[in-house]
User: Fold this.
Amino acid sequence: MHKITIIGSGNIGLSLAKGLVKSGQYAPGDIMLTRRTIQHLSKEVEQGFLANADNANAVIGADIIVLAILPQQLKAVMEELKSSITENQLVISVVSGVTCAQIKEVLGQQTQVVRAMPNTAIAIGESMTCISTDNASQHAIQQVEQLFETVGAVVVIAEDLMTSATALCACGIAFFLRSIRAASQGGVEIGFHAHDALKMAIQTAKGAADLLLLTQNHPESEIDKVTSPKGCTIAGLNEMEHNGFSSAFIKGIKLSALKAGGLYNE
Assistant:
């Protein structure tokens, strides 16, 4: 079993750690977590995870090193790590908007780097993770695929699409959550108690997603099944479209992709 060090135990780092353990493929003792304030990891240490406040020390002996920090912190953290990382270790970066080449500029050209962009649903084994590399080996790519397949679905993409993947999949979680929240608020306005409206909106959204996953149909073909002539569904859909529903969603995704690409240099 691989030993994994996760540098930066914020939402994504902890979600990955917990998702890997939940999958049954890894034990907490196989995973080292780092955080500047180590006291914030006391609950994870009780669960059996290893913890370390010293990033350079934490990567020694690891097979896989996951960089799960903010883009603005990455340069300083890589400077700490570069003397400890060896050619045999695989570096996985989940940092938005930072290329493999930029990472190797600091860690060394011999470093095997694969980028991964999961989302927070990784904590329940339902992530949509996109992975890419510039020139890491096929074996390294397969390792990363296997790692993230334990916690959801994986697509291998070209590296120049990684900031787009960030917007659609990682930021996308928040976009779909906001749409569920809006649906529940609509439910309250038409007469339901808030807790009932939220439960109904959540299950309806889950049903819609599962319908597409299981049937492999296009969304429009499923929409056609719900829209009858002069009916209430088409009236509601058209009212949303007149108010810019699809347009606002698309514009939000485009702006998030633009922002994700510039974070490292801010």
In short: The beta strands are 4-7, 31-34, 50-52, 64-67, 90-93, 112-117, 127-132, 152-156. The chain has a mean pLDDT of 93.
